[in-house]
Amino acid sequence: MTTESHNSNDTSNNNRITYDIQDYICLIGLNRADKRNAFDSHMIKQLSEALTNYENDANLRCALIFAHGEHFTAGLDLMELQDKWDKGAFEFAADEIDPWGIGGKLRSKPIVVAVQGTCFTAAIELMLNSDVVIASSNCNFAQMEVQRGIMPFGGATVRFVAAAGWQKAMPYLLTGKPFDAQTADRLNLVSEVVENGQEYKRALTIAQEICKAAPLGVQGLLSSAQDASRNGAKAALENIHSYLPHLFHSEDAKEGAMAMVERREAEFRGR
Q1: CA–CA distance, 165 with 159 (Å, rounded to integer)
Q2: Which residues are CB-neighbours of 231 under 8 A, at least 6 positions away?
Q3: Orientation of helix 251-262 relative to helix 215-231, angle to 10°
Q4: For position 78, what pLDDT does the model report?
Q5: Residue 232 pLDDT
Q6: How far apart, in whole angstroms, are the C-alpha atoms of residue 203 and residue 65?
Q7: How many angstroms separate the Cα of 49 from the Cα of each of 52, 121, 267?
Q8: DSSP 117-144
Q9: Which helix (H) or strand (E) holds 230?
């Protein structure tokens, strides 16, 4: 096992996000624990940079987003962001990954998220733009923008409703009232709820399992699922065969077939 670190753990403006590499996994940590990891403009930019680096590194197969401290994130730092709404704080270039998947470049690789403690507003929307979410049993969720005079703008109006259904989602979106991890599970906002303190370990296990799968196959699958989410099932089904030539002629497809014949675990290389 190899681990490479790219950040210190101080909480200066330049270290709102930690970035580490463990084998094929990119470990991205929210690192503003003294503010319950609330997102200010620096943290938003650094998270985008971390996800863009992950996207562009061909050696990395899965990202795990987690939080330092007791809480995942209290959402947005509204006081710091108050005069930055119209100054590009939430704008991303065509080659940048938007952590909330509203603009910028569409990511092609999987993201697992481990959450604990406070998970407000942007936290839920960050979860909803990921692929696997492991929640601690002590999580406290709230999509409370309507209690702050604004509305959710990181995807909840679409993805929260899509996950939970209109009638289940609206009581929480329209009121901003809090809900616990078990409710989040019933609303299909998380993949699993685990005992408090086990969320990172469980999320890392899933990330490791993803890394054992064929990277090109994983990326094709993810792209097709995103196509369905954004453009509808009909468009995604019409496009699904376009992925096959690239996959069937890959080295990994040959390795997968040989591993099956030889009754061994495949060793995929992503090509």
Answers
A1: 9
A2: none
A3: 120
A4: 85
A5: 93
A6: 9
A7: 5, 21, 30
A8: SEEETHHHHHHHTSSEEEEETT-EEE--
A9: helix 215-231
**In the predicted model, what is the mean pLDDT of residues 163-167?**
98
Give the total residue count for the chain.
271
Phi first, then psi: give them for residue 127, nearest 5 degrees: -60, -45
The count of other CB atoms within 10 Å of the CB of residue 48 is: 21
Share of the chain above pLDDT 70, in %: 94
Between CA 267 and CA 61 the distance in angstroms is: 13
Q: What domains can be seen in the chain, in order of their start residue?
A: 3-212 (3.90.226.10), 215-262 (1.10.12.10)
E strand or H helix at 245: helix 244-248
Q: Render pLDDT for 77-132 as a digit per residue (tens, 0 to 9).
A: 888 787 776 666 788 999 999 999 999 999 999 999 999 999 999 999 999 999 99
Does position 9 have pLDDT exceeding 50, yes or no? no
DSSP 115: E
- Name residue, tokens 């690239």: 246
Which strand (E) or helix (H) includes residue 136?
A: strand 132-136
Pairing of strands 3-5, 17-22: antiparallel
Q: Is the pLDDT of residue 152 over 90?
A: yes
Give 4: exposed, middle or buried? Use CB within 10 Å, 0-12, 13-18, 19+: exposed
What is the mean pLDDT of the segment spanning 60-66? 98
Token pair, residue 261, equals 């014949």
At position 129, the amino acid (one-letter code) is: N
User: Which of 74, 88, 60 is CA-nearest to residue 30?
Assistant: 74
